[in-house]
Specification:
The complex is a heterodimer of chains A (978) and B (255).
Chain A (H helix, E strand, L loop, with lengths): L15 H8 L17 H4 L3 E9 L5 E9 L2 E6 L6 E5 L3 E5 L8 E7 L4 E6 L3 H20 L6 H6 L2 H6 L35 H4 L5 H4 L1 H15 L9 H8 L4 H12 L1 H7 L3 H8 L6 H10 L12 H17 L9 H9 L4 H15 L9 H17 L1 H9 L5 H9 L8 H14 L2 H13 L1 H4 L5 H13 L12 H5 L2 H12 L5 H29 L9 H17 L15 H6 L8 H11 L4 E7 L4 E7 L3 H10 L9 H12 L3 H12 L6 E2 L1 H14 L7 H19 L24 E2 H9 L2 H13 L18 H9 L2 H17 L4 E4 L21 H21 L6 H13 L4 H7 L11 H15 L3 H8 L12 H16 L4 H8 L1
Helix pairs in contact in A: 10-16, 10-20, 11-16, 13-14, 14-15, 14-16, 15-16, 17-18, 17-19, 17-26, 20-21, 21-25, 26-27, 27-29, 29-30, 32-35, 32-36, 33-34, 33-40, 34-35, 34-39, 34-42, 38-44, 40-42, 44-45
Chain B lengths: L5 H4 L2 E10 L5 H10 L12 E10 L2 E10 L9 H5 L4 E7 L3 H17 L5 E7 L15 H13 L1 H10 L8 H11 L2 E4 L8 H11 L2 H10 L33
Parallel strand pairs in B: 1-3, 1-4, 4-5, 5-6
Antiparallel strand pairs in B: 2-3
Helix pairs in contact in B: 5-6
Classes of the chains: A alpha+beta (978), B alpha/beta (255).
The complex binds guanosine-5'-triphosphate and magnesium ion.
Organism (chain B): Russula ochroleuca
Protein name (chain B): GTP-binding protein ypt5
Keywords (chain B): Nucleotide-binding
Chain lengths: 978, 255
């Protein structure tokens, strides 16, 4: 049930270039798979923008603006970014000329494939203009070489507008008034299938009364416009185009205009055949998305005739499936079915597929994603705009506790298609594709404004919804039914709505929406994350012995781990296994693998992280790194109760429950089981050695040699005692040296023996009594804070600077400086921290009689080392001893390391373990004492303050700046950090 | 605003009720049956939530249900709190032909019990029992019956087809199992069919009987009177279609 995703956090605001590309609807350049090599044309094709004045050949008016070269596109926007604009693929350009330059005028005449001539006067300085021309010609050549020019003509045939402008239109005779084809579109062009793309409306009729919609005159208007201003790929958007859109697009042209205005046409143009290919490649594949789609196919505009037939249902199914295959993260969201069904009335499947892509990816990002963050964000933005533009209504809503989004959420999510009668909704959609998402907000505000008086009367959500529903149902009525002026009476409420939307709310610009989205993004992300946390906790089968807060900490650690080390996407089970029974268990749930687990564990267990306290004169910080040791993997598999090779949140909670609340005996048993791989109740000799490795790992940063001593005593005791308890072969004498031989992978040490051996040592006893449990800490996890006010320009810059890499760079820099001034110090923070100075704890008296001791210890060790040389795969004791020494190396400083080189090469016959222990002990005597006091003083409680997280970075940058003004001591650094 | 004092005068009590449950289990259909006694074979999925009202008479009281019918798809889940906040009653719907939908219902119940109004009355409704009506004898389902099923199979083709193939009876959730769960969790329990209307009215009557009306009255008297400004809306004044033997004395209330 609980899926944990860090996806929202990874959101990055588009930079300026990306914003331009978005604005001009230029499709992202597909990176070539084969790495492309040096002569990748993208390298040499530069972007450039330049001031320019646009005019059309023969037309009077010209518009100042900016001309952009984004190979392979040329784009223009007038200064106000809305009056005039175009995005033209370079492959539609046939010639570029520089007409005889009048004095000081640098202009280009661009001839397009259908004969249209655009003239742009470059108003920048001469060198810039020259450079622009050079780049343009390079980009054009590249297109020519790639043979792109040839693709334009065939593509244009798929566009209805091309047929419109032919003098003798083959279409007109075959059309009904509403624009649908008399014979269902099958016989256009003397028996050939119509080359142009069109929607289900061609066959099943378009909604609305064509007379009332004035289809014929609108079509004529557009036809004239296309002749002068180009069409589809080369459409120049002049102010009149926007006005034509606002009165409603003619039915037959609607689909093409939607894709042209939204820019999805460029995707269809650059990805020919892709739609079919996606369907082909995924044929027969099922997923949660396809299941959900099936449920809704018959529930999408069911009153429209096409969706009562297999033809319409099939088209809808294919488009939705193709989208979900192509966007597995989004998959399918209810409301997309309604949108898809609506646009399929006007466009072909392929057109609809790409339009849907543009809607979900660019126009309404995150609307239909699993978290629906885009929807929630825009609702928040809408609320804020209402507060600003309609404060009286906002106040009233607050007073009577009415939530705006109970009504407005479906408006946005279905682009009003689900709220208004279809013919009106489609006109909103026309404007939406032409002018962008701001339209949804403008219309929403206008609805509230027009109904303002009644809205002030409502007392609850229900009345609000009713009022809105009634209003939508009356959109076709006169807005001024009592007016004496017949022209006034003729104005419908819908016309009034659009008028108010675009007149009174013209202040709502695209930039308003973007900046409001930026303003509230983090708030929304935080609330979504809080919600998923709550439901993840609620959905746990059991909290075990934890309270809610503690489980919350476990969740936070898990969440952080997922952010740092995202688990691989779950592999969908093969379709044949997808029976209904299985789907009950197969609810989507985040499962983490060993890699993510280690990050998780490092947040919880003190010994699962390497914490270095770094002091460099400017700052004192703790560098935390995830440790890596076999013990951590062991724990992962130990907690994998359902044998899936992956852990759920529940597994982690249950796993932690098994150790955090335990007492001495429980803990010993837990540790025993953790190392008893085959669960037969016995440790093998190898496993005994692994136990000591694990212990050495846990103790690697402890101060003093108490633990090392304890571990080596544990080893010798374990072997002594283990051997002593082995059943002896019949008839062997007491002083017989031939103790039974036992393979290193045979059952050797029972739990009872293990316990006894551990309890023989005071240090280990206290470790198992309290320290082991206490090393798992449930405390607030320093999460990557979302800065609350990431709104301003500066905020953006800061957040860019404060990336993780930059933090590291900064640390490195200050470390370097610290080294040069001799103030660089690194101390490992101990995981347990019980002993704060070197002190020797004496072992308890041996459990064994001197005789037992004498006879068994040596032989056992001999036996294991013998086994080791013969058995290559199992872990031999010599290397274990060596690795015990290597583990010990971890705590030694470089200066001491050379001594350890001795131990692996210890001559045969000598007791290798004793040797290793010796070396370890030596190392301790020689350890420089610098670490001890400082580290000991350090309180573990301030972990969270010293994480290297973006938020803290600012503090550290501050600290750094401070450092340059005043003489900074370590304490100052700490203060600044705190 | 003429009935401003209605809250206490005609003893009409406003009850906020929310419907929750997996997508396509028939929440909207249940409401539609209750509110207008209709059934639509292909109901559009609910986007966000829909709002309807219906009056219901219980003894001498008139209850005015304000019904929030929510969207079922998992990703709409995070919106649900917006609709169930302050709800006095909830109907959690599952589909008797889909075992997974009961699991989803259970998580809803859990969430309501922890997050919603503590006195909320929750009813569990297993819908679509028309699809699993014991066909008299094992294989004796009438021709019309099977045609009906074929009809529904278009609405939810996957499961219907699958279950048809497996067994005679597409039921996946035994009545006893759901009932036992409901009892354990302290829920009212019903099996319903929005298609035939079976059990629908009972759900709402039973809830009405279990609602702590007095406390709602007390609290709404304190608050602003709940005038019937929108009481004259279409769809709300239809009478609940009473089964003749439903002697609860409920009737239409065209106000
Ligand atoms: N046979 C049968 N079909 C039903 C019944 N109730 C609903 N359906 C059908 O099941 C499908 C889904 O019904 P809805 O009422 O829209 O389901 P919902 O729970 O509101 O779905 P969402 O709004 O998507 O959450 C529709 O095709 C209904 O016709 C029933 O009692 N019997
Ligand atoms: Mg519904």
């Amino acid at each position: 049930m609980s899926t944990i995703s860090a996806q929202l956090r990874n959101f990055k605001e588009p930079d300026r270039d990306e914003q331009s590309l978005l604005f001009f609807a230029i499709p992202p350049v597909h990176v070539k798979d084969d790495g492309a090599g040096q002569n990748n044309p993208e390298d040499s094709l530069h972007k450039m923008e330049i001031n320019a004045m646009l005019s059309l050949d023969g037309a009077e008016d010209s518009y100042p603006g900016k001309l952009h070269l984004f190979p392979p596109y040329l784009a223009f926007a007038s200064l106000d970014r809305k009056s005039v604009r175009f995005t033209i693929p370079l492959c539609t350009v046939r010639r570029v000329e520089r007409p005889n330059a009048r004095a000081g005028v640098y202009s280009l005449s661009i001839l397009l494939w259908h004969g249209m001539k655009i003239s742009v006067q470059l108003t920048s300085l001469r060198p810039a203009a020259d450079q622009f021309c050079a780049l343009l010609s390079m980009a054009l050549k590249a297109e020519l070489q790639a043979g792109k020019m040839k693709t334009v003509k065939p593509f244009s045939k798929t566009c209805y507008s091309e047929n419109l402008i032919l003098d003798t239109s083959p279409v007109a005779d075959n059309e009904r008034e509403d624009g649908s084809l008399i014979d269902g579109g099958r016989k256009v062009g003397e028996g050939n299938a119509p080359a142009f793309h069109g929607g289900l409306g061609l066959k099943f009729k378009f909604p609305g009364d064509p007379k009332k919609l004035r289809e014929a005159s609108k079509t004529k208007l557009w036809t004239t416009y296309f002749r002068v201003h180009g069409r589809h790929l080369t459409l120049l958007r002049y102010p009149q185009a926007t006005r034509f859109v606002q009165v409603g697009l003619p039915n037959r042209l609607r689909g093409e205009m939607w894709e042209t205005l939204s820019g999805s046409i460029y995707l269809r143009f650059t990805n020919p055949g892709r739609y079919k290919q996606i369907l082909e490649e995924n044929k027969g594949r099922t997923s949660t998305s396809t299941e959900d789609i099936e449920k809704d196919l018959h529930r999408s505009l069911p009153e429209y005739l096409a969706y009562q037939s297999e033809e319409g249902i099939g088209a809808l199914r294919r488009v939705l499936q193709a989208f979900s295959y192509n966007n597995p993260e989004t998959g399918y969201c209810q409301a997309m079915n309604i949108l898809a069904a609506a646009i399929l009335i006007y466009m072909s499947e392929e057109q609809a597929f790409w339009l849907l892509d543009v809607v979900c990816d660019r126009l309404l990002p995150g609307y239909y994603s699993p978290s629906m963050h885009g929807t929630l964000l825009d609702q928040r933005v809408f609320e804020s705009l209402v507060t600003r533009c309609l404060p009286v209504i906002h106040e009233h809503f607050q007073e009577v506790d009415v939530q705006l989004s109970v009504a407005s959420l479906p408006w946005f999510l279905s682009l009003y298609i689900n709220s208004m009668p279809m013919i009106f909704a489609f006109r909103v959609v026309d404007c939406f594709f032409c002018m962008g998402p701001k339209v949804l907000f403008q219309v929403g505000l206008a609805i509230l404004k027009i109904n303002g008086e009644q809205l002030l009367q409502i007392q609850d959500d229900g009345q609000f919804i009713h009022l809105m529903r009634d209003y939508f149902n009356s959109l076709g009525d006169s807005a001024h039914p009592t007016s004496s002026d017949p022209r006034m009476r003729a104005i419908t409420k819908f016309q009034e709505l659009l008028l108010v939307s675009f007149r009174e709310f013209a202040v709502i610009t695209e930039e308003t929406i973007f900046s409001e989205r930026r303003r509230f993004r983090n708030e929304i992300i935080a609330s979504i994350e809080a919600f998923s946390k709550r439901s993840a906790i609620r959905n746990l089968k059991t909290l075990e012995r934890f309270n809610k807060e503690q489980v919350g900490f476990i969740y936070d650690a898990l969440f952080k781990a997922v952010c740092v080390e995202p688990p691989p996407a779950p592999v969908p089970p093969p379709m044949s296994l997808l029976t209904t029974k299985d789907t009950i268990e197969e609810r989507p749930e985040t499962r983490i693998g060993p890699k993510t687990f280690k990050v998780f564990l490092s947040e919880i267990a003190t010994w699962a992280r390497d914490e270095k306290i770094v002091m460099n004169g400017f700052q004192q910080r703790v560098d935390r790194e995830v440790a890596d040791h076999e013990l951590m993997d062991r724990l992962f598999w130990f907690w994998d109760y359902s044998y899936r090779g992956a852990l759920t949140f529940q597994d982690l909670v249950t796993g932690l429950d098994g150790i955090i609340f335990s007492d001495l005996m429980d803990n010993i048993e837990w540790f025993f089981n953790l190392h008893d791989k085959n669960k037969d109740g016995f440790l093998t000799k190898d496993e005994v050695l692994t136990v000591s490795e694990s212990l050495l790992f846990i103790f690697r940063f402890e101060i003093g040699d108490a633990y090392l001593g304890a571990v080596s005593r544990f080893m010798s005791n374990a072997f002594e005692y283990g051997d002593a308890l082995l059943p002896r072969p019949e008839g062997s004498g007491e002083e017989d040296d031939a103790t039974p031989q036992i393979e290193s992978n045979q059952p050797y040490l029972s739990l009872a023996t293990f316990r006894m051996v551990l309890l023989a040592d005071e240090v280990l006893e206290s470790f198992f009594e309290t320290d082991l449990s206490a090393s798992f800490r449930l405390e607030p996890v320093p999460l990557m804070e979302l800065s609350p006010s990431n709104n301003g320009f500066l905020g953006g810059i800061w957040s860019n600077i404060a990336t993780d890499t930059n933090v590291k760079l900064f640390h490195k820099l200050s470390d370097e400086v610290g080294k040069t001034i001799g103030r660089h110090q690194v101390i490992h923070r101990p995981s347990i921290g019980r002993y704060t100075s070197i002190e020797d704890t004496r072992p308890r008296e041996s459990l064994l009689t001197p005789a037992m001791r004498h006879s068994s210890s040596e032989s056992s060790l001999k036996a294991t080392s013998g086994a080791s040389s013969t058995e290559a795969q199992s872990r031999p004791s010599v290397s274990s001893a060596a690795s015990a020494a290597t583990s010990a190396t971890l705590i030694a400083t470089d200066a001491e390391r050379h001594q350890f080189a001795l131990s692996p090469t210890s001559p045969a016959g000598l007791d290798p373990l004793a040797q290793a222990t010796n070396v370890v002990a030596n190392a301790f005597l020689e350890r420089t004492p610098f670490a001890i006091d400082d580290a000991g003083d350090d309180d573990d409680d301030d972990d969270d303050e010293e994480e290297e997280e973006p938020d803290d970075v600012l503090d550290e940058v501050d600290a750094f700046l401070d450092a340059h003004e005043t003489v900074v001591t370590d304490e100052d650094g700490e203060v600044a950090n705190g | 605003m003429s009935e401003a004092a209605s809250g206490s005068a005609d003893k009409s009590v406003q009850v906020k009720l929310v419907l929750l449950g997996e997508a396509a289990v028939g929440k909207s259909s249940v409401v539609l049956r209750f509110v207008s006694d209709e059934f639509q074979a292909n109901k559009e999925p609910t986007i966000g939530a829909a709002f309807l009202t219906q009056k219901c008479r219980l003894e001498d009281r008139v209850l005015r249900y304000e019904i929030w019918d929510t969207a079922g798809q998992e990703r709409f889940h995070s919106l649900a709190p917006m609709y169930y906040r302050n709800a006095q009653a909830a109907v959690v719907v599952y589909d008797v032909t889909k075992a997974a939908s009961l699991e989803k219902a259970k998580t809803w119940v859990k969430e309501l019990q922890r997050q919603a109004n503590p006195n909320i009355v929750i009813a569990l409704a297993g819908n679509k029992i028309d699809l699993v009506q014991p066909s008299l004898s094992g294989s004796g389902s009438s021709a019309t019956e099977s045609e009906d099923e074929a009809d529904d199979a278009t609405a939810t083709p996957g499961e219907a087809a699958a279950s048809d193939a497996e067994t005679e009876n597409p039921r996946q959730v035994p009545r006893e199992e759901a009932q036992a769960y409901a009892q354990e969790a302290g829920l009212l329990f019903f099996e319903t069919s929005a298609k035939t209307g079976e059990g629908i009215v009972e759900v709402f009557t039973e809830i009405a009987k279990n609602i702590p009306i007095e406390s709602i009255l007390a609290s709404s008297r304190g608050a602003a009177g709940r005038p019937g400004t929108s009481g004259n809306r279409p769809g709300t004044q239809e009478a609940v279609n009473l089964d003749e033997n439903q002697a609860r004395g409920r009737d239409a209330c065209n106000c």
